[in-house]
Each structure stands twice: as C-alpha cells, then as structure tokens.
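call fold(seq) -> tokens
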Amino acid sequence: MKPSEINSKWKILQEKISQEFDSDFPDLKVMLFLIGVQELGKGPKKYSKRQKEELMHIATCRLLSEMGFYELEGLDQDDWPHWKLIKAIPPYTMLEQELLMKSLVVSYFEDIYS
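ret:
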C-alpha cells in the first residue's frame, strides 16, 4: 500500500473503532492494546501497566509475524503467548515504522471487519 492509502484506511479504522467503543479516535498504542487483548483471548478485564505493555508486545509480535520476523513459540503457564524473533528487523526510520505498523494494523482489522 502507498502511504496515502495506508493513512486513508487508518482514519477509517480509527473511526470504526471509536464508534464501536464510544471513545476518542484511538492512536497506535490503543490499537496495539486491542490487538493484544484479542490475541490473548481472555476478553476485556483490568490489566496492570506491565500487562498492558506485554499486550502491546504480543500485538507487535503478532503483526510482525505476518512479515516473517516472529513466530509463535507457545504459551506459558498462564496461557500468555510467547514469540521468537526468527529474522532481524531492518533499521526502519520512525516514519517507516509507524507506516508499517499502521499498515499491519489495518490488515489485521480488515480480517475482522470484512
């Protein structure tokens, strides 16, 4: 996708999520948190700050697994997924990282909303 297409689809996704959750437009961190909760599969509940960070890490690994950077290693004793880095991630600029993650988030939610 071109950057303009990514940003256009990102805005549409933000609008859908904000309507569904009756909230402000979510930023990338909120989207990663939502994906992490979805991937964990335990539903919405109270999470500690550390757990929220871990949920965002789960989401990041899950999204980057689509590009072959990570693979699911398995679940721990609490059924939290653990990922293994299998290919070095290129040194993207901050803008490239943001566009890449937005693109992966859009693709993730397209599967859910289509």
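The radius of gyration is 14 Å.
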